[in-house]
Structure formats: structure tokens, C-alpha cells
Amino acid sequence: MRETEQVSELFKQFSGEYPSSISPLPQSGSDRHYFRLKNKQEMSFIAATNPDKKENEAFLSFTKHFRNKGFPVPDLYYEDIENACYLLEDLGDETLFSFSQKVRTSQIFPRQLINIYKTILEFLPKFQIEGYKGLDFSVCYPRDSFDKQSMMWDMSYFKYYFLKLAHIPFDEQLLEDDFNRLSGFLLQVDCEYFLYRDFQSRNIMLRGETLNPWFIDYQGGRKGALQYDLASLLWDGKADIPYDIRTYLLEYYLDQLEKYIPVNRSEFTEYYYGYVLIRIMQAMGSYGYRGFYERKRHFLQSIPFSLKNIAWILKNVDFPIELPTLFNVLEVMLESKVLKKFTKNTQKSNLMITINSFSYQKGIPEDPYGHGGGFVFDCRGIHNPGHYDEYKHFTGKDEEVIRFFRKESDMDDFLSYIYQLVDQTVESYIERNYSHLQVNFGCTGGQHRSVYCAEALARHLLDKYDIHVILNHRDIDLWTRKTS
To answer: Are strands 204-207 and 436-443 parallel, antiparallel or unpaired?
Structure first.
């Protein structure tokens, strides 16, 4: 049975009717596939399929546990264990990562974003300490704790899928000896907490005008140390948090943690940087596997950020244990001509994408760069909220209109096709070192449909590629003046 048929049957089991629409969502690095389903009343749901039934069991069990504790995780509506699929609450499309890419300019890390991170760090100890209580760790997969075996798996992942594929030389036995020393050191701390495992910016959703954080993808959770999830969040490669702000947020987290347990700050920080190091290695193993081995180019875009973080750590952190071979390997990585060859085009691309919304009444926007190419998408086939009085004074950027379109099956389908077309061109342009691409969305008034589509594509591209995006709502100012 095809996955679309599978989730359609799942929805029928849940609601008694087939969905009115099914739209695939962009796939991440896992084998899980997600779909947005809508019913006849235009309510939206997320269906997931995953052939790994043990991972499903962990996710479903954790979801029920966290929901019972009142944690902001998606509601679980229906599950079909036998067919490895389940139905969830739709939390929208805005991740912490996509939002940060929109609001950051150059090296400026805005106060609004710092406050969001602080809110997340206020909640992290709840997951780690309150979430631990009563959780069924027997469903953890593949192990019930981030123990020595788990650590050695992660470091071997780094060794074989990053170092080997990037042609970084190393002494197998001496590097293994350092891995054993590092894991032994990390396991000296208290590990009787819930470890989320992948606590990073793409697994935190922001909802509503207040941008409240909600949490997803905790199926890899297990017992472990407090430092690991903090390292995952603050040293998330492409999130690229400035180092002074990382230090500030570390101290803020410790302030929150002290509300639950006593904290020896110097001791915590000593182990913290060890967990930062192993988390970076685990992530680089993933980049190597997905990028070098599977040839999914956008994973390679994260490597320069990890190299920058490693360089900072080697210069600024004094580790209390000797890891001579590992540190030598890391130094060789930073200077590797082969690695620079792999990553020379993975820094922020020179490609600039201009995304315009416009009104057909005033014509299609001109291309100021003179290339004469790009895309023009006609949004007039989409259900228009401008036909209703309650939406006439809003635009596609307003929450009222956003909620309207999230209920519209034709909008999701329309955008899913556009993502595929534009992604193909973007990747080709990056590869060829082209400088500019223009994408235009037109509708009748340039107020609702075209604006919503332009905003959605900008989020999608910034979430996936390291590129420059200029978002221009050409005719939205006219509407603002008319309705003010």
C-alpha cells in the first residue's frame, strides 16, 4: 500500500471518513514521512509513517506521558501500530530555526530571539527532571540510557562516516583510546535524568502571535546527563548562536535548573563542554553520512559551522583530561585541503533569491537584475479570503489569514508543488554559482494569497539552504494605507 493510501485509511479509522486532502511535508534526515491531512471541515492534522516500529513505540509512549504532565507536545489522536503510522495535532510550520533565519540580520542576534531561547531553557529542566518521573524507559530505543555503548556508537559514527569519508588520517587504536577516556569522563556525572537526545532548533515549533515553544521528535529520548540537551540546543550548528550569547544562555539555564536541584556551576560547566564535543562529533557523523555518503548536498552546508565551533573549543576550553589523538585529529580537520574542497561551496551561497508578492492589476514585477528568468506563480486559483468581509482588512502576514489558509487543502497542495520546482532550480543555481533568482507570486489584489505564498516559500528556503532571501510585498503597502 502506498503511504498516501496508508494515511488515508488511518484517517478513516479515526474519523469515519477519508481526508479531503493529503499533502506531503518536506522530509528531514530520517526515514519518517509526514503528511498534512484535512477533513471536510478544513481541520488540519499531521499523519506520520515510520517503518521502525520500536521507534514508533517510544514516540507514542513518550507523547502520552508528556501530555499527561501538561507538556507542550502534539496531541496524539490515533495510532495504528501494526501499520506503523499515527495521527497527530498540527503544530504549524514555524520552527525555531526558520524563525531565527527570518529575524536575524548579519551577526545581530535580536532580543526577541534571545527571549524565545530563554523561554525554552525555562522548560528544558521540566523535561529533564519532571519528565523523568514515571516515564517508561523500557520502550527507549535503541538503548534506555546514553551510556558508554551509546557514546562509542556516536564517536564511531563520526570516525567512519566523517573522518573516513573526508579522508582525515588517524591512528585507529589511539583514537579509540581517547574515545574511551572521553566517555569514561562524561559518565562521571549524574545520568538519572531524561535526555531528549535531539533538542535542537528544528525540533522546536513556535505557535501563535506569542511564539510559544512546542516540542517534537523526542523519540530518541533515554536516561542521561543534563548537559547533553543543553549542548544540543546552544551548539546547534546552523543556528550559529554567537559565543557570548551561548555563555549568557548557559548561565540562564543554570539559574532555572537551580529551581529544581542544587548546582555546582563550575563542575557542571566542566562536563558541559565535554558533552558539547561529543554532540558535535555525533552531528558531524550525520552530516558525513547524509552528505558524503548519500550525497544530500544540503547536509554539507552544516559542516563549516561545526568546524568553526571546534576551532573555538580547541582555543578556549581547557579539558581536565588528556585527549591528544582526538585533538590532533580535530586540528588536522581544520586544516584539511580535502575537507575544504568538500565544503568550499557550502558556506552561505552567493545566490540571492528575491521573492515578490504582487497584484496582477498592476502587472508582473520587473527583474532589476536583468536576468529575465525565474518563476511567476498565479495564486488566483486558490480560495480567496478577500471574498469575506472579516478578512478584507488583513493581509497574508496576519494570523487570521494564516489560519484561513491552513484550513485550505488547495493551498498546501499548491505550495508542495512549488517547493519541488523551486528547490530543483535553487540547487542547480548554487552548484553553478549563479547570483540571482526571482520568484513571483501574483493574485488579484496582492494582499492575501500571494503574500501568504511568498512568506511560506521564504521560510522553506531559509530552513533548507544557506542563501540570501529578499522578501518584497510590492502592493501590500497600498492595502495598509487604504485600511489604516
So the answer is: unpaired
**β partners of residue 76:** 88
Greatest C-alpha distance within the chain: 72
- Strand positions, DSSP E, 233-364: 352-359
Q: Of 317, 231, 219, which Cα lies nearest the Cα of 276?
A: 231
pLDDT tens readout for residues 205-229: 999 889 999 999 999 999 999 999 9
Tell me which CATH code domain 96-343 carries. 3.90.1200.10
Report the DSSP pairing between strands 352-359 and 436-443.
parallel
Share of the chain above pLDDT 90, in %: 70
Q: What is the pLDDT of residue 479?
A: 39
Helix 265-287 with 226-234: angle, nearest 10 deg: 60
Q: pLDDT digits over 263-293, tens only?
A: 999 999 999 999 999 999 999 999 999 888 8
**Is the CB of residue 282 less than 8 Å from the CB of residue 157?**
yes
Residues in the chain: 484
Average pLDDT over residues 103-120: 89
CATH of 3-89, one of 3.10.129.10, 3.30.200.20, 2.60.40.10, 3.30.9.10: 3.30.200.20
Contact 134, 65 (CB under 8 A): yes
